What we know:
Rossmann fold
Amino acid sequence: MNLNLEGRTALVSGASSGIGAGIARVLAGQGVRLAITARRRDLLEQLAEQIAATGAGKVVVVSGDATDANDVARIAAEASAALGAIDILVNCAGGARPTRPDAPDADWDEAFALNFSAARRFTQAVLPAMQARQWGRIINISGSMEPRSLNAASAAKAALHLWAKGLSCDVAAQGITVNAIAPGRINSEQILARLHPTEEGRSTFIERNIPIGYFGDPEDIGHLLAFLASPLARYITGAVIPVDGGMHFFAH
């Protein structure tokens, strides 16, 4: 299917590995002109080289810290200077933050800075140009709303969901959609190294909880995201769409 994305521009945060890198590869394959950002510049440059080797074109690398407001403004400005106005914003920066009930404010502040404020700030930086052109796509990589224990990132993602739904109402008539994807278990650094570090543990979890029988790959998120970013998805906004292989609700 031709998604009519060739020549569009995109900024992808959290793109150094895992889901963000998979999204970047899929968008590049659709002819999207990319800027990618994360803190680990070496991994960003490796990804840019991999994408360029496929013939998909040069990728703009802008390293920085998504939890820093000044860095977010700089990243958005450099991406726009290199590519022109940003058509597609992918807010993928984030990470789990298991939290004690007595955790200090600093822990909560960091979790919200990474999992909520970064997306809000990136959006505020690129939204005026989308509004001027009456077209844009903002897609947030979210998370489960069924935490099994206290996690500051879950609270931040809850804020992300409702902020995005409210924003989607405000900008819909301007040709801008705002959606979220909630990944299940995806083969990524966070899942494989932290949440399910052993093959036995992964197999047991899959058998009990994932009807499709395996963990997804980052590109499984990327394919849905590319559709949501396309003109074909013009009538989808304010949605939170799970990509989880049918993972049982309680297992989230």
